[in-house]
């Protein structure tokens, strides 16, 4: 089938939904699909062969409040004239323009979260995000979400079926400990937090407060930043000058994965995620993991790590002290988490589930059904 993917900034992926699409592409191409990915020309470049897929970079506004809308408009206009069998919109906000596609084309949309819950956006942007949610529910032929609690919310709130398809993870072996030398770190003797984009809902203020209270006797390493981060918040965190805290910036590749793999503890304090890739990464390396007890995080990690009350620094400090004083128990739980992630979050299996959605929808469209 000829399938277009819209709603992302492009590939290769460095954050969130872009990583999801990037990881799915080789598997979907191997199934025989002709895939076209639309992205922002400020983020990606057009090419006829990116892991077997075509990439079309479109222009749009650079203003953060109009960036998504303008790029999605231009991508939708181009996709409409190309005669795709399936159009797959990733993220619910771009669905505000889902109505632009022809009714005979199969339309799939995937929610990766509720952007209007994030503090970094202005009130008008959050209002538009809330409106877009209604288009996500009403316009596509098939709706999916990476989060089971989010599926439950949509079905309860709107009475519409939303298919749960979780994110996957690329299962990796631990990179060399030599990658730690640039930061003066010892394997198993540091706490690691990977935040991706740094913004206020990531829970880093809670993390710093807990680290000071627990005084665990080892460095706290925080990776994250880059495009889309809240620069004022990042400076606010750095200006606290908490002894033992290392901000290492936005990392990729083995530099990042070495921190996951060789940490003594991985901590994920975010106040809101739909299905966090960072949390999956931490669990996949078998490192003792502490996470905030949001419903979305519990759906991923319950029974595989140690939860603390979201936004509660004292609860997190207590978890630090427990995990560090029950090392063998924590390592054994980490090993079970690694095997669970291997079984349940394989990208090939995730791609197969999307393929089933595409095939079933295409068959319905051929029969003239909605």
Please tell me about this protein's structure:
With 370 residues, this protein is α/β, with parallel strands linked by helices. It folds into 2 domains: 2-168 and 346-366, Glycogen Phosphorylase B (Rossmann fold); 177-344, Rossmann fold, CATH 3.40.50. Helix content is 41%, strand content 17%. The chain has 12 helices and 14 strands. The protein has helices at 16-30, 67-80, 123-138, 148-158, 204-214, 231-238, 253-262, 277-284, 295-301, 313-325, 327-344, 347-366, and strands at residues 2-6, 34-40, 47-50, 53-58, 86-90, 106-111, 142-145, 163-164, 191-194, 220-223, 245-249, 265-268, 289-292, 306-308. The chain has an 8-stranded mixed β-sheet with strand order 3-4-2-1-5-6-7-8. Strands 11-10-9-12-13-14 form a 6-stranded parallel β-sheet, sandwiched between helices. Helix 1 (16-30) packs across helix 12 and helix 5 packs across helix 10. It is globular and about 65 Å long. It starts with a strand and ends with a helix. The mean pLDDT is 93.
